[in-house]
């Protein structure tokens, strides 16, 4: 990849002067910046995938160890972190922790639920009823407002919960704009969280991952953040792909 100095040298070698030189440098610097962003994103995605895979392996190993301890009667209840909330020794598998409104991050909690269900070969048509038994507070209230048909469909229940907890396009946009490092969170972990919010925002807004489409998304959101609230509300309701 060329550096800025090399691009300047190339412009000199080509004999560009004045506006032509400025235009050449502007275009090449833009390409350089785009490549740097792509390279950084690819690196973060690779690190994120590796982290997720490592955490998955750790979770699976931990669950197997806990299950073995419970079956052997060595422990009835773990006392460290989230393990303290797995407390059923009579069931074939340890119970998952209940969702706690003020403590748990819903999307992470649902990911753990899904991994646990898959690792224990639960039939997907039973996921919704199993999930219901673990809900409390807002989540349980949301579940109770669904129709009988919707309540039996895990994907529809999940969609309703995500909306109730503001894990929507606008919700992830706000998280991306306002997130700050959590206590004890390393810089790398914080960056991964920022990228996760951004990726979720882009995905839920159905935005193509190209420079022009991403530019439209950023400009549109910046405009709506700066314009009067009633106009912004109207524009968000119309969900226009472009403002022009």
Automatic annotation (TrEMBL):
Name under which the protein is recorded: Reverse transcriptase
SUPFAM superfamilies: Retrovirus capsid dimerization domain-like
Keywords: Nucleotidyltransferase, RNA-directed DNA polymerase, Transferase
The keyword rRNA processing appears for this protein: no
Domain spans labelled SCAN box: 171-239
Organism this protein belongs to: Elysia marginata
MF terms in GO: RNA-directed DNA polymerase activity
Matching InterPro entries: SCAN_dom, SCAN_sf
